[in-house]
């Protein structure tokens, strides 16, 4: 077998097997061990386990391996409910209390890497988990194909591949969502509707998207196609109406050609409403097909209650909600404040935020299209100086211009909601030049995965 020499003294090659003790979990939930000082990443392996690792990839500074055999199992190892090789369940073999501990540790790992001011003294609170860490996802986007036998299948790809794994069950999804997806597959099959073929770039139905409202139990169904027209449109709509009474909104999105993006630019209304509504506490949200909304409404309420607690708004105080999206955080805390202003660079999100404010009977909110780095100085010049700021950026973290704007204007109350500990720790390096971190509260929004959310409460120094 061909050997790969990686440095002067360590040889490693694909297919090689060796015993490995797993020291810790990496940020993606994979086991980490060391073979002759070389770091080895092993998905599905847990800290404290001794495994026989089989090398799958060798790089200059690390190797990837798979578990060939578990020689000594961790007491935290459990039998996962789903036995599929797909993303979204990468920690399903780890007992839930240990998952919560891992999510707190991920924040500590990120802080130790970036070393923001006084990071060793931070109060990093235990992760807030779910009583029932399954059946929480209110949305599914499953690819649709035909298998070798011509059967319509729907599911997710194997990691780093385009091999579709059919998912007849998936225990992080809502039962209704799964029922709708399986029924739609059956309708596509019975009507002989054309499905997309990636190799030939031909065929129609590419993706089934289902979103369910926890508040109403109603669902929205979107078929994404490679073609302009939906084949057997009338028959399809009639079948959905008769077999899926929970579906109150039926949409068609057109996304032609080979692309890694789920959505195309054009969305057509097929039948029913153009949106569904969801509630968080007293706030009503209208969700159109492409509107962003948190995937776990039960834990979103937990997360936003933590934001509310960290902001401690008084009735005479004003708040800016940067990266406001459809208005979720700002609307949730608006009744505690004198005024809330939010901004986002996506015009559709701002349109939705304005509607959601109206639906929730809130008149003390204002939403604008554009970045916070534009609006904060502009409002400041017009005499609107906020008492508090909340930011909930994407996984890439805060925009550099916004960090500079925050440091310049220094709102007295400041809360950062993060969905990525690495970019949070990086941003803290600059933010802690003027702010102290009072505490970091992690919240588990995605049980069975390695993803972690955190609420950071700051206090202004001096």
Describe the structure.
With 462 residues, the protein is an alpha/beta fold. It is 24% helix and 32% strand. It has an eight-stranded mixed beta sheet, sandwiched between helices. A seven-stranded mixed beta sheet has the order 11-10-9-12-13-14-15. The protein has a five-stranded mixed barrel with strand order 3-4-5-7-6. Helix 1 packs parallel to helix 9. The protein is globular.
Specify the biggest β-sheet.
8 strands, mixed
Q: What is the straight-line distance between the termini?
A: 65 Å
Task: State the helix count.
Answer: 9
The low-pLDDT segments are none
The amount of helix comes to 10-25%
The pLDDT mean sits at 95
Identify the overall geometry: globular
DSSP, total strands? 24
- Residues in β-strands, percent: 25-35%
Structural class given helices, strands, pairing? alpha/beta
Spatial order of strands in the largest sheet:
8-23-24-22-21-18-19-20
Radius of gyration: 24 Å
Task: Present the secondary structure layout.
Layout: E1 4-5, E2 11-12, E3 17-25, E4 31-35, E5 38-42, E6 50-58, E7 62-72, H1 96-114, E8 124-128, E9 139-146, E10 152-157, E11 164-166, H2 175-191, E12 205-212, E13 219-225, H3 233-243, E14 247-254, E15 266-272, E16 275-280, E17 283-288, H4 297-311, E18 318-322, H5 328-333, E19 339-344, H6 347-359, E20 365-369, H7 372-381, E21 388-391, H8 400-409, E22 413-418, H9 421-431, E23 435-443, E24 453-460
Parallel strand pairs: 5-7, 8-23, 13-14, 18-19, 18-21, 19-20, 21-22
Antiparallel strand pairs: 1-2, 3-4, 3-6, 4-5, 6-7, 9-10, 9-12, 10-11, 12-13, 14-15, 16-17, 22-24, 23-24
Helix pairs in contact: 1-9, 2-3, 7-8
